[in-house]
Request: fold
Amino acid sequence: MYQRVRSLALASAILSASTSVAPTARAQGSYTPTAANLKARTWFQDAKFGMFIHWGVYSVLGDGEWLMETRPIHRTDYSKLPNFFNPTKFDPGAWVALAKSAGMKYITITSKHHDGFAMFESKLSDWNVVARTPYGKDVIGMLAAECHKQGIKLFVYYSQLDWHSTDYFPRGRTGHATGRPETGNWDAYLNFMDGQLRELLTSYGEIGGVWFDGMWDKPSADWHLERTYGLIHQLQPQTLVGSNHHKNPFPGEDFQMFEKDLPGQHTTGFNADQGVSALPLETAETMNDSWGFRITDDHYKSTADLIRYLVRAAGMNANFLLNIGPMPNGEIQPEFIQRLTELGKWTKKYGESIYGTRGGPIAAGPWGVTTQRGSTVYVHVLDWNGPLLGLPAMPREVRSAKLLRDGSSVEFSTVKGGLVLNLPEAQRDEVDRVIVMELESSK
Ligand code: H79
Reply:
């Protein structure tokens, strides 16, 4: 049934390729997600762990994905960069297998970053990987084919901000030093963007989601969000729309994301304006300090820190989208591979306390978090030295408590208004002591 809905949607998308999307756009004002979309949201919340990939022609210079702006580099000079993008070692099958072995359930890749360069074959502009690079192959298409083959969902990152397009005008907070004329047609830019999204949603099979970024560049512009989101949902109803605009979600969005912050945290400064909505949540973080490949960045987080981030995100009801920035030759640096492999060992052993769970009944604390599935509550002890851990009361009576790592019983006692656990000692290198509690069933 689900498949049928999807393929019908795809068929109607192809048929209506040249028609207006206005009727759907109007419906978005009071957005009601379809059954297929709601099902996809549940899948997303169960999935918990995804791989973020930042890869583009900027990777060639090994200085992150923002260098067109930060150096700055003129549009004409930046146009030389695709000539050096020839990732002969790009092995999409190996990338997908690596994500799967880490326990990741989806991949979100930059189809177009702020430099406007499409990593897919676009008929709307030759500023794309097939037309401009010696490599000449459709990177998104290759990865999509492998994702479908290996059974993992593909999300596409798409930057609404564009430092290349002359029609991205009037300009916003960034992109003033690219040497573009001080004229441009904003509506033409939006049509171009919708056209590229139509390409992405009609050429590569099922797309799990669209991860927008860059709207913060022109927060008060008319982005025609209803039209764009409506187009996506019309083409593929199950595709989840999310946007990194750092504000509360707008109608038509299906998940809410937080960049470099757990939900509700405000450590970066740019998440100050957003609260935590009832939508599925996702938090994105880098493995070192960079999104795109940066040759001087050796500031890698430890595997233990990454496990803690995954666990804390799950405890706060959010997915963890962990970034890699592959090298220009197509390889993934060994430091990333090592950490992903170690994460895989952990998710294999402890995954039942993460996948398919929701944030638990006890608020997160410095000691750790809880997750839950049905009448099972997982207590994740991340940072606690003593044997006795006092927690607020569970919502229902606790029937049993066992250590996930070996199934041994954990002593506990119910006290007035709370619960005290007698924790077994952590094993060497054990990042998360997980106690599995069975509660009285709610029925
Ligand atoms: O793709 C990665 C980054 O390139 C992109 N998002 C991640 C996933 C990103 N772009 N900007 N940022 C991250 C940081 C945002 C900084 C901001 Fe501002 C602070 C945006 C608005 C306020 C400083 C002032 C930068 C633009 C205006």
Remarks:
- The CA atoms of residues 350 and 404 lie 7 Å apart.
- The two ends are 31 Å apart (CA to CA).
